[in-house]
Amino acid sequence: MQWLLILALIVGIYYFFIRKPHRKESPKKQEEIMVECEKCGIYVSSKEAIIQSGKYYCSKECCLK
Questions:
Q1: Smallest Cα–Cα separation from 35: which of 17, 49, 16?
Q2: Are 39 and 61 spatial neighbours (Cβ–Cβ below 8 Å)?
Q3: What's the DSSP call for residue 20?
Q4: E strands of the chain, at which residues?
Q5: Is the C or the N end of the chain the one with fewer CB within 10 Å?
């Protein structure tokens, strides 16, 4: 019984103090490129921009003008 208690104590110390937690590697973030709207000149991220005829627009309104 004594050995079981000592073993449990050693395992507990290992898990709480010595073992490093596993870290999930986050996927590398792609840098967001800011592009200028052809109509109004506002900068918007390339992910949110609307592309028409090779030009970037900030919204549908600017795209239709």
A1: 49
A2: no
A3: P
A4: 34-36, 43-45, 50-52, 55-57
A5: N
- State the Cα–Cα distance between residues 39 and 54, nearest whole angstrom: 14
Looking at residue 25, its pLDDT comes to 66
Distance CA 65, CA 62 (A): 5
**Do 44 and 34 contact (CB within 8 A), yes or no?**
yes
pLDDT digits (tens, 9 = 90+) for 30-58: 678 999 999 999 999 988 999 999 999 99
What does the mean pLDDT of the chain come to?
85
Contact 25, 17 (CB under 8 A): no
